[in-house]
Amino acid sequence: MEDDKIKCSAYWPTEAGKFFTQGKIFVNTKKVESEEKFMIYTIELVPEGCSNSHVVKMIHMTNWPDRGVPQSGRHVLRLLRKVVADKLDCGPIVMHCSAGIGRTGCIIMIDVILRRLFAGKPVDMVEIFKKLRDQRAQSIPVDVLYIFVVVSVIDYIRLPFERLR
């Protein structure tokens, strides 16, 4: 629910031990963890007529308003760190928000910038933004989201130095 509008139904049970069938897929929430600004769900999916299950981890960021920004980019940086850490032992990453362009676009752009920094490659924010929009039309549709990306990257760069003081 955002702005008193239902944007997306929960397509997973929100409590551990609960399950339901979604179309031809049995959906079972095995575990729910609560962290500051996140809910982490471990979900088992079993297609009808199949004995093999797929276990997915879903991280639900709970403090990012639609068409707005969180108070701090540090929570987004924690989200990215968690996603990257979990990626080491699982499959592809799927990310979405209501329209798939605002919040999702920001997280993708921050991730691309940080990966380039880690690899020692140059970072051309305008070029990264253009490439993102080539692949995901209308990504980061408002100025405040672009500014949030920049501030989050600056926060990331500053964090290690602040810990040393």
Automatic annotation (TrEMBL):
Highest rank taxon of the organism: Eukaryota
Domain annotation Tyrosine specific protein phosphatases: ranges: 74-147
Domain called Tyrosine-protein phosphatase: residue spans: 1-156
GO molecular function terms attached to this record: protein tyrosine phosphatase activity
InterPro entries attached to this UniProt entry: Prot-tyrosine_phosphatase-like, PTP_cat, Tyr_Pase_AS, Tyr_Pase_cat, Tyr_Pase_dom
Pfam families, A to Z: Y_phosphatase
SMART domains (alphabetical): PTPc (SM00194), PTPc_motif (SM00404)
Entries under PANTHER family matching the protein: TYROSINE-PROTEIN PHOSPHATASE C15H7.3-RELATED, TYROSINE-PROTEIN PHOSPHATASE DOMAIN-CONTAINING PROTEIN
Protein name: Protein-tyrosine phosphatase
Organism this protein belongs to: Ancylostoma ceylanicum
